[in-house]
Amino acid sequence: MSDTAALPSVLFVCVHNAGRSQMAAAFLTHLAGDRVQVRSAGSAPADTVNPAVVDAMAEVGIDISAETPKALTVDAVQSSDVVITMGCGDTCPVFPGKRYLDWELPDPAAQGIAAVRPIRDEIAQRIRGLIHGIDARGPE
């Protein structure tokens, strides 16, 4: 068994994997470090991460400029303890034994940085709560 097998794993899913899920994954990686395995994916991934999202994250010291949108796979869901959806609707596969959360957040697609900042800040707040919950009770 590898060390990573014992770590809780979280998958963030949104439609394009170009905004909300990228920010959430980056915040969780930044704030939790190596205590959590982090993945993100999209049900219909875009070609690139939203530039306003990259700029908004840079404002808080997190560089996601090298990230690329990834397609949602059944394997990604199966290998995650917690799946957090952000507007992917019914396209996210559901498996027994997983913890599912749905975060209703505005879509930053085609938005400028002024519109992205409050979404970023809401995601950061939710990630802090998620980390507290994972630390308190584990992934289940």
Task: Explain what this protein looks like in three dimensions.
Strand 1, helix 1 and strand 2 form a beta-alpha-beta unit. This protein has helices at 20-32, 51-59, 74-78, 113-137; strands at residues 9-14, 37-42, 82-85, 99-102. The relative contact order is 0.23. The protein has 140 residues and is of the alpha/beta class. The chain has a four-stranded parallel sheet with strand order 2-1-3-4, with helices on one face. It is globular and about 40 Å long. It is built from four helices and four strands; from the N terminus they run βαβααββα. The mean pLDDT is 89. Helix 1 (20-32) packs across helix 4 (113-137).
Largest sheet: 4 strands, parallel
The total of beta strands comes to 4
Number of helices: 4
Strand arrangement within the widest β-sheet reads 2-1-3-4
As an assembly, this protein is single chain
**Residue ranges: pLDDT <50 for 5 or more in a row?**
none
Helix content: 25-40%
